[in-house]
Structures are given as C-alpha cells and as structure tokens.
Design a protein that fits this description.
heterodimer, A: 197 residues, 8 helices, B: 201 residues
Chain lengths: 197, 201
C-alpha cells in the first residue's frame, strides 16, 4: 500500500508543476510541442532517479553543512552524462532543447526532492520517489505540450489532426501562449480540487 | 563608435527583445515567487543584477583560461554551477562584513539566487552567443550581457509586483486566484514584449 501511494503521489497529490509550482522554466520553455515535452520530461526523470538513488546512498557520509553543494555536484554529474548521451544519440532533440539541458541542474524539483525526500529515506523508496515525481513531471509537460501543439500547429507529434480549414493560432507556441495555457490549466485543476472537497 | 553600437545592441536586445524572463523563460521561479511585494521585488532584482554581472565575469575567465586550455569543456555545467554557488556564498559573507546595510536589504535573497536558472543560463549563453559574423562575445561583452540580463529581469519583476499589488483588490474568479492569475498576467506581459521582436538597430 505504501509503495503504491509513493508511486502515485507524483501524478496528482504532489504533482511538481500543478500543485507545487516547481521547475517552471523548462515547463514553459520546452512545451511548444509534444516531442520536446517528452524529451525534456524523460531527461529530467533519469537525472532525478539517478540523483535520488545516489544521494540516499551517501546521505550518512556528507556533513550537514555542505550537503547542498554535495547534492549539486551529484546532480550536475548526472546532467552532464544525460547531456552527452543525448548529444550522441538524439542530436535533433538535443538541438531543440538546447540551453535547457544543462539547466536541469537548477531545476528546483530535483534539488527539492533530494532535500525533502532522498536525504531522509532509504535507497528503494528514493528510487520510487524519483520515478513517481519524474513521470508526474513528464505527464504535466506532455499535457501542456499537447494543448499547445494542437492549438498552435494543429498537429500532434507532427501528424495533422485538425481539419485543413483550421487556422493555427501561432500565439500558442510562442511565449505568451505558454504562460496563459499554464495559468488556465492551474485554475482548472484548482477548481476540480475544490469540487472534490 | 563600434563600442557604442555594441553597447546599444546588447542592452536593447537583452533587456527588451530577448528578455530573460518573458522570452527565454529563465528565472521564472523567483519571478512568480518574489513578485508579491514591490519592496522585495526590487531587493531581489538588485541582488540578481549584482550576481549576474559577477558570475558572467568569473565564468568567462573559467571557460577560456581553465576549461578550454585543458580540453575540459564537457565539465562546463559542473564547473559553472559550483562557481556560481561559491560566488554567492562569498558575496554573502563579504556583503555581511563590509556593507551591513546592503546585507540587510539583500540578505534573504542571496541564497535563493544559486538556484535561479537565469544566472547559470546567462553564464552558458555568454559562451554560446556570437555576433552576426561568428565571433564569440569577448570579456567585456559577456559582462555587459550579464548586467543587462539582470536589468531586464528586474524590470519585469518590478512591473509584475506592481500589477500583483493592484490585483489583490480586483475581483478575480475564485479558482484563478493566486498563482493562475499571475501566469495569465505574465502571459499578457509577454504579449506586450512580443512587440519588440524583430526590432533591429
């Protein structure tokens, strides 16, 4: 039961974007299409799983005072690995995400989970936490990516789904569309949560 | 003359055309988090301007005098984030010792800046950005870009804080209160800043 709760919390209850508003920069910057959203989400997930596992393993060895720099070094190493792997195997995606791959280091979700969860729990729980939070993040990014790609280009993953007569709203894939879509999505989620209560 | 042209180019393009917050989506967490009050927005903005200029200066030196000669460019991310973290720590100690008044004003914001992605972002962008003919930014230009990126951040942060203070008294629909309306307002601001796109000197 505990494992299930741990695994599901990242999607709804403690969803990093919609209920905690963490990791906003990549959320808005890369969600102009579903492909970019998935790429960014999975890259962050793998960094999160790795760093959570390592940090929960070394948590007893690092002095309390220098723990944040230590966490940052661990996270930065994983980010460099992911950066180089993507550069080698997915060059097109690497190019379109660009600056935001090295910036995974300062994504508040990863440091936040290291501090709030991995530094207090065992390896297995931390791994599950990383998977749950990472996939929750990926799902939220994909929702935004789908909405913006449909509105802005009439496509999903490059396939035309809107009829030809549909005039794409270019604004949805530009910067203002990102802010406004996220604002309304957050509002909708707040409204649904209120109804449940 | 050329210097003046470059100064004008960097200032306008980083403050308005490619604003770090609204166009490049960097530094959004403090933008949404610290924009509830005008005073704290101004304090945060000043601290960011300061740290960004210092960080641009130091990361430039590290890149070209340490990483490139030894062929260690792949360590860029780790090197830069550690530099920024320790820079912020030193600045905090230095300001606390020599300028207590400034420390009182900026104190709470300094530790937050380490995880402000705009700072790491500007450090990496300084290395990546080039002029139209392909020459990379030099030392002075990098510092200028860092400084003006900070100015651009402060500008939108202060504007946003002003709007949000007024928003407190507006009849916003119940479920849009707080964060959601802040994003929608930010979207409208981004729409306004989109007017600068394609602006050429």
């Amino acid at each position: 039961m505990r494992l299930k709760d741990n695994l599901l919390k990242g999607f709804v209850k403690e969803n990093p974007i919609f209920s905690m508003a963490l990791g906003l920069c990549p959320t808005l910057a890369v969600t102009s299409s579903l492909e970019n959203s998935l790429g960014m989400g999975l890259a962050s997930t793998s960094v999160l799983i790795g760093s959570n596992a390592i940090i929960s393993l070394i948590k007893n060895f690092i002095p309390d005072k220098v723990r944040i720099p230590c966490y940052i070094v661990v996270i930065a190493s994983f980010v460099s690995v992911v950066d180089m792997l993507m550069h080698a195997f997915l060059p097109a995606l690497h190019k379109s995400l660009g600056l935001f791959i090295p910036l995974i280091v300062v994504n508040c979700i990863i440091l936040g989970r290291a501090e709030a969860f991995a530094s207090k729990n065992g390896v297995f729980d931390s791994l599950v936490d990383g998977i749950s939070m990472g996939l929750g993040f990926t799902c939220s990014l994909s929702v935004l990516g789908i909405i913006r790609e449909i509105l802005g280009a009439g496509k999903i993953l490059g396939f035309q789904i809107m009829p030809d007569s549909y005039q794409p709203m270019l604004i949805a894939i530009l910067a203002p569309g990102a802010f406004i879509t996220l604002g309304f999505l957050m509002g909708m989620i707040k409204m649904m949560q209120k109804k449940e209560k | 003359m050329e210097l003046l042209y470059k100064l004008l180019f960097i200032s306008i393009s980083t403050v308005f055309v490619q604003n770090f917050v609204l166009m490049r989506f960097l530094g959004l967490c403090p933008y949404i988090g610290v924009s509830k009050k005008l005073d704290s927005a101004l304090g945060m903005g000043m601290a960011v301007i300061f740290v960004m200029s210092m960080a641009s200066c130091i990361t430039y030196l590290i890149q070209y005098y340490l990483l490139v000669p030894f062929g260690l460019e792949y360590l860029q991310t780790i090197a830069f984030i550690l530099t920024i973290a320790s820079l912020v720590q030193f600045l905090e100690m230095g300001i606390a010792k020599y300028a207590p008044a400034l420390y009182k004003a900026l104190g709470v914001f300094l530790p937050l800046i380490t995880t402000n992605c705009a700072v790491l972002g500007v450090a990496i962008l300084n290395i990546q950005s080039t002029w139209a003919d392909g020459t990379p930014f030099n030392f002075i230009e990098s510092i200028l870009q860092g400084f003006f990126a900070g100015i651009g951040f402060t500008l939108v942060l202060v504007l946003m804080a002003g709007i949000r203070e007024k928003l407190e008294y507006s009849p916003v629909p119940e479920s849009l209160k707080g964060m959601p309306i802040a994003f929608i307002v930010a979207g409208c601001m981004a729409l306004a800043f989109l007017g600068f796109a394609g602006f050429k000197i």
